[in-house]
What does this fold into?
Amino acid sequence: MKVNIFDVAKKSGMSIVTVSRVLNNAPTVREKNRQKVLDAIKELNYSPNSAARTLVRGKTGVIGLTITALNDTVFDGVVQSVLENLKLNGYVLAISIAHELGNESFDASNFLFHHDRVDGIIVLSTLQEEAYIADLERKKIPFVMIDSHSEHNNVPTINVDNYLGGYEATKHLIALGHKRIAHISGQYAFLSARQRKEGFTDAMIEAGLSPSMIIEGEFGTYCGHSIMQNWIAQGNQIPSAIFAADDMIALGVIRSLMEAGYNVPGDVSVIGYDDQSFANEVHPRLTTIRQPVGQVGEHAVKILMDLIQGKQTKNTKLQLKPELIFRESTAKYKGDIN
Amino acid sequence: MKVNIFDVAKKSGMSIVTVSRVLNNAPTVREKNRQKVLDAIKELNYSPNSAARTLVRGKTGVIGLTITALNDTVFDGVVQSVLENLKLNGYVLAISIAHELGNESFDASNFLFHHDRVDGIIVLSTLQEEAYIADLERKKIPFVMIDSHSEHNNVPTINVDNYLGGYEATKHLIALGHKRIAHISGQYAFLSARQRKEGFTDAMIEAGLSPSMIIEGEFGTYCGHSIMQNWIAQGNQIPSAIFAADDMIALGVIRSLMEAGYNVPGDVSVIGYDDQSFANEVHPRLTTIRQPVGQVGEHAVKILMDLIQGKQTKNTKLQLKPELIFRESTAKYKGDIN
DNA sequence: ATGAAAGCGCTAACAT
DNA sequence: ATGTTAGCGCTTTCAT
It folds into this structure.
C-alpha cells in the first residue's frame, strides 16, 4: 500500500518512467535495467496502484455484472461463461447483487454503475430494466442485457427463445399422447413467462387441443405445490400432463401430486424449465428445457467487447435456442386418472 | 465521463473546492451557493470520478468477496446478509468468482486483490486457503475467512460448528430409534467434512453403536446416487438411516433408494445438510441441518469493519451453531428391511 | 465561508 | 534507450 513507483525507481536506480515501461512491457528497456527494476519490484513487494492507473488511462479493465440471486443454476452457468470469455479478452469480472424488492426505487448506489469503476456492464435478468437502461445510457456506459423483458427498445440484448422453449415443452407432452395439459407460468411481468405461455398455447392450438388450465405462478418459488394442492382439493380433474414454467415450480407440482397419491410420471407427466442442478437428481429425474448458458455468456461478452471498441454492431438483438432434456418425469399417456 | 469537477465549478460560478465541499456534505457552504452547485451538478449530469477519489483518499469504500459458485443456497444466504450489513456500514460489495480447478495455482489475477480496489475482503469457503492468506497478508489487505479449513492459523475466521451439526444430525437419527446408520461425507480435504464425520462418529459411539458405513463422497455433487447404488448392488444390508454430508448427496441417496424400490422414510431415513432451497420442496421434504447464514454474514462484516478501523479484535475465531430442521425424509425406525 | 496550491500514483507526450 | 514534464480528477491543508 505504501510502496509506490518512486520507491521502485529509487531502489532500482532508474527513473519512474522506466519503471512504468517495465510495468507495461514496453520493448524499449535494456534487459539489464529491466532486471534491476524487476528485482526492486520483487524486493519491495510492489504492485501498481490501480486507481492511479484507471485515472490516467481512463479505463478500468473490469466488466461489471449485476445479478439478483446466487442460487440459480442458469445464472451460475451464464456467469461462469462470462467469466471465461472475459478472461480471454483480458478483462476481469466484478459482480454486484441488485436487490429487486418489488417497486423499490432503482438502486443507483450500485457500485458498478460508474464509468470509472467498469468499462462495461452486463445486466442479468432484471425486472427494473427501464431504470437500468436509462441510467446506463445517461452515463454512457456500454452494456448488454441478458433475458430482457421489454421488446421495444434498441438495447443490445441476448435472450433465449422462450416461446420456442414453451412450444417444444408442450409438443413433447403432446407427442407423448397427452391431451389434457396444464401450464403454470411465471409472473407475467417477465417477458419470458409470457413467451413460454404463448409457446404453450400455440402448440396446443396447433394440435387442436385447448389448455386444461393456465395459472400464473411465480418463478423460482415453489408455488407449484399450493397451486396443485388447491386444484386437487377443489375436486378438479387432474390434467395428465403439466408444463411448469421452471424447475422449482415443477418440483412443487410433483410433490403435491405425490402427496395426493398420484404417480409421476405414471399418472401425471410434469416438465420443468431451466435444468437446475437438482433436476437430474430428484426422483423422478426432471424432464426439462435447458438454456444454452455457455452461448449466452459468450455472446454477451462478444457484444460488449464490440461496444467498448466502438465497433458498429448491428445484430444487437440475439436470440438463442433452448434444448429439451427428456428424463423421467414425463411419459406416455396411459389413460385417464381420477 | 467527460464532465468533471471543473465543469461544475465553472457552471456554478464557484471554485472546485466549494464543489468538492458540496459533494462531501461539508457544513461550511452557504446554502445559496450550495444550491448553485447542486443545480450545476444536475444540469451537467455530473458524478464524481471514483478513481480520482480513491487515489486521493487512499480508500475505496468497497469490500470484496470471493466465491466459487453461484448455485448454492448457503452461499447465497451469506452473501445476502453480507450485503445488507455492508450497506449499513456505508460500503458496497464487489463479488469475484474464484475458480478452484483442482491444484491449479492460486489465481492472483483476481481483480479484488488490490489494496486500491477494495478496503477489505471476505473469503468464502475456499480450498486454496493458504494461498489466499499468504497473498492477503503480504498485501496487508484486511480480510476475514468464512468456512475456514485449516485449524492452525490466527486468521480471522467464522465457521459454523460442523462437528455439532454432524453430532445433532446423528443424534436425531438415533433418537428416532435407528441403530444401523451410515454416513456419506464430503471430501476430507474440507475441514467441515471431517468435522461432520467426527460428530457422526462420536454420537454413534456415545450411543454404543458402530457406524454401518462411512464413505467419503463429494460435496455439492450427486455422488450419493452412485454410492448407494453400489452399496445396494453388492447385496449389502441397507442401513435404516443415512446421514448425508449435504443435501445434494442426500438427494442422490434418496433417488437410488427409491429406484431400488425402497421407501423414504418408510424403509430408510435420510438426513441432509445445508437446507438448500429445494430441500423443502422435494418429495419427501428433506430433514436437514440449517446453517445460520444471516449471522455468518453479520459477523463477517463486523469483524472486517473492526479490522479496517484498526480496532483490536481478540475473538477473531467465531464459531456459530447450526440448527436441525426436521421434515419428512426421516422417521421412526420401524424394523429391519432387506 | 471560500479559494489557491499541493499532491495522491501513474502514464503519455516530448525531449535527449 | 532513458528521462523530464505535464496532467488524469479529486481532496486537503493553509490562507484569507
Notes: The domain at 1-46 of chain A is CATH 1.10.260.40 (434 Repressor (Amino-terminal Domain)). Chain A has three domains: 1-46, 56-160+293-320, 162-291. Chain A touches chain B through 59 residues (CB under 8 Å). The longest strand of chain A covers residues 62-67.
